[in-house]
Design a protein that fits this description.
alpha+beta, Arc Repressor Mutant, subunit A, Endonuclease, Chain A, seven-stranded mixed β-sheet, two-stranded antiparallel ribbon, 9 helices, elongated
């Protein structure tokens, strides 16, 4: 059997033994345990347990003839049915996930942690930002100081997705940017829900205040980096500074 087939079966969640037994059965019509053991090279002590798991996954079926079990691989389309059943299972898990996350967070005690983390690359930015946004209570606010990297194609799509997530949770977006950025924000960002004001000077770096986190951005197209700082005093200080600048702008 080709490596591609084995690779896909593993990605579906089948164990090494399940892959070997399933692929051995594919080469038979209906067979007893002996030939399965020889073909798959799975020990007799494990093969029955593996066959039971494959039967539960509807990938193998069996019949009894003269008091002997004969096993057979289900039609290949059963693999698609198995994937769909896993998708249904994940959908059910996702529906309860927010409640579970809140309960797990509650196990951490009442003390507010203080820590700093670094996320690198575009995927890292997405992971860190959505974690920070998740800490904003529904109906809260998201603040940022922009230094002018919002024209990056990836960032434009990323911040559109972020705005959609914030809008779902009725979180308001407020940003301060240099007047030189006004055209970009008017054409693109304000249309997707960003409430902006403009000043005549620039900030040292892009800074975002999201929930429990102060986030400092260092933009480099090859490997952008964000520094996420979880610190209540810093978040409160920068939030107050933002509001003061907002009222003066």
């Amino acid at each position: 059997m080709g490596g591609k087939i084995e690779s896909v079966l593993r990605k579906l969640g089948l164990s090494e033994g399940e892959v070997k037994v399933y692929l051995a059965l594919v080469e038979f019509d209906s067979v007893t345990v002996g030939p399965i053991i020889r073909k798959s090279r799975v020990s007799s002590s494990k093969v029955y347990d593996i066959l039971d798991k494959l039967i539960q996954k509807c990938l193998v079926k069996y019949s009894i003839r003269e008091k002997t079990k004969y096993f057979q691989a289900a039609q290949p389309v059963s693999l698609r049915d198995y994937v769909e059943s896993k998708e249904d299972e994940l959908t059910g898990i996702k529906s309860d996930l927010n409640e579970v996350i809140d309960k797990i967070k509650g196990l951490g005690g009442g003390l507010e942690k203080e820590e700093a983390r670094i996320y690198k690359g575009y995927k890292g930015i997405r992971t860190g930002m959505f974690e920070a946004v998740g800490s904003i209570p529904a109906g809260g606010e998201y603040y940022f100081f922009s230094t002018g990297y919002g024209g990056d194609p990836y960032l434009k799509q990323f911040f559109r997705n972020l705005a959609e997530e914030l809008r779902k949770r009725k979180i308001k977006i407020r940003g301060l940017a240099n007047v030189k950025e006004k055209k970009l924000f008017r054409i693109y960002y304000e249309k997707i829900g960003y409430n902006m004001k403009y000043v005549g000077f620039s900030w040292p770096s892009d800074i975002t205040i999201a929930g429990k986190y102060l986030i400092i951005f260092v933009w480099d197209k090859k490997e952008p980096v964000i520094y996420m700082i979880q610190s209540k005093p810093l978040v409160e200080s920068y939030s107050s500074f933002f509001k003061e600048m907002w009222n003066k702008s």
